[in-house]
Structures are given as structure tokens and as C-alpha cells.
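In practice, a research group might receive sequence data for several interacting partners and want a quick structural hypothesis before committing to experiments. The following worked case mirrors that situation: the sequences arrive first, and a predicted assembly follows.
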Amino acid sequence: MAALYVALIHGPVLNKRGDRITTATTGLSVHDIARATATFGGAGFFLVTPLTSQQALVERMTRHWQYGSGAGYNPNRKVALEFVQWADTLQTAVAQVQQAEGQMPQLVATSAKPVANVPAVEYAELGQQLAAEDGLPTLLLLGTGWGLPADTMVQMDAVLPPIFGASDYNHLSVRSAAAIILDRLRGK
Amino acid sequence: MAALYVALIHGPVLNKRGDRITTATTGLSVHDIARATATFGGAGFFLVTPLTSQQALVERMTRHWQYGSGAGYNPNRKVALEFVQWADTLQTAVAQVQQAEGQMPQLVATSAKPVANVPAVEYAELGQQLAAEDGLPTLLLLGTGWGLPADTMVQMDAVLPPIFGASDYNHLSVRSAAAIILDRLRGK
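A structural hypothesis for the assembly, expressed as C-alpha cells:
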């Protein structure tokens, strides 16, 4: 089984008007995506933010649930929060995966809108790659705000199609999208 | 296509020790599950809580995004929040679905643990029922806290199996579970 990592990108991302911004870390996103990472056999979950105050917040949260009073209160959170670490940039997260896995990960983005200039990969196809013994380590990128900027998108090896249901509304939260994507790739 | 409703049960539910409690409403749960309901063609989303203060909170949130400054700022939230309403008990939610649909809904629970005394239904099977033109209206129950009490469970017509991924850890947030369940039932 290939190693699957998740990166939640807080910066740089786009805002509503298409400006480059850094979004704030949301405590529930850290928990929800860490718990989904643990459930679906992920190898790690990066919060990518250039803000030192936000990096410190992530450290405080993980310490509370790993070593503080949270660890005794809810051991399931302890397990999930062990997957969490911060990285100042996407490049740092990629380098950390490379160091842990001994090879460069493939970078796969997700997007609520179709992306023209990046090869598309279907969920079933990527799921099969990940299930293979010799599958490449994979870093799955989730954007916050209004999504990943074009200069991040062009670095991707592949992009997964937007998630659609029974309507043409597809404005899921990043927490919901992360859960569905991991289930489509690795659910039983 | 059968009408699919979601109910997030805040009370009565169980706490860690198995006592009956009422949990607090979480703003992000309202948003995340409303957006997933909209994405997957749901007909409505009930927050079930006996607490009038919490019912008022739900009303304030929906008003802000439907008619307040939120409606102009983010019209996608407006669409999603239109699906949201509170009910004081499960019985009230069931009665409201019955009134809207002209017949009693089937009640389907979800659970992180196997449930012995309720008929199991597979995701694919329920998905087919929901896709049928003459499919029964269905109310999907999501528990908060440590899950639904036994006297709620025995009222169910069916229960969906727990969600497992690539590990034996299955402690998803209710937001993640809701997203995955709706995708499994109605995703494209």
C-alpha cells in the first residue's frame, strides 16, 4: 500500500476576488481531517501555513491531545492528532514526505472546479495506484479559502475531479471534501 | 428520486459513560452538513434539540445567511442554509417530513458500531431505493456525542454499517461521517 499524505493549504490560497491570501487555521478542520486521515490509513497530515502564530496554535493543539489532559479524556483523539504537523510551505511538506519515504511524492490536487492545464486522474484509478505494493508516495492537497492559486496548480502531477452529488451545487466544506475524497480513495 | 432528509440528533444522545445527555450545537456542523445536504440533493436538514436556547441559535444562524449580511457575502451559504430547520424531538422531525411528503418516512440510523437488533441495510441497496421514482421518503439520523440511545435505535427501520477505511480506527467526526454517507448514497 502506497503512503498517502494530506496537506491542508492555508497559504498561499485565493480569496473570493482571486487575491493571494493566508487563511486562519480552524480547530475543527485539524481534528476532522486528522481523524479521517487515521480512519483511511493516511501516513500524515500537514497544515501548511507561513504564519508562526498559526504554527504555534497547531503545536498547542497537538500537545494538548497527545500529552495534555486531552490524551486521557479521549485516547481516540490522541491517535488522530499524532498524524498532524505543520509546514511553513508546500515545499517543506514535500521535502518531509521525501525524507520519510525515500522518494519524491506525486502531488495530487483536488478542486471544486475543473482545472484545464493539469492531467486529470479518476478516484478509482488513483485508488488502485495507492493500493499497489509499489505505488508512489502521494501527497493530496486540499485548498482553503477560494482554492489553490494557479502557480501551485501547475506544480501538480494530477488533479482529482470536483465532487458532484445529485445536484449542480458543489460547495462542500474542506472537511467534508477531505472525508469524501479519502473514502473514495481508500474506503471499504 | 425519493426525498432524503437528514437529522442531526443533539438530544437525547449518550455521553462517554452511557448517560443520556443533550449536546451543544456546533456552528460548523450546521454549515458542513447543510452544504453536503445541498450537494447531494437532500430535501431538508433537521437539528434536533430540546433546548430553546439552541433552537434560537439555529434560527439566528439561518437568518444571518438567508436574509442578513451573509446572504450577499456568500450566496452559496444562503442556498445551503435554506435546508436547515430545528425540531425539538425526533418525533417532530418525523411529523414534519410526513406532512411535507404525504407519507411516513423510513428511519435509517448510522452508527460507528454494529447494532444488533435493527435490520442492516447496505449503502448500495439504500442508494438504489433512494434513486427509485417510487422510493420511500427517508430520514437519515446522525447521532452526536457517543451516539444514539437504544430506545431511539429500536425505532429505526434500518441501520447503515459503520464506515471503515484502511485501518481499524473509525472515529470520524459527525461532519465527516455525514459527508461520506451522503456521497455513498447519492454521489456521482
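Before designing any experiment, note the following. DSSP finds eight helices and eight strands in chain A. The first helix of chain A runs from residue 27 to 39.
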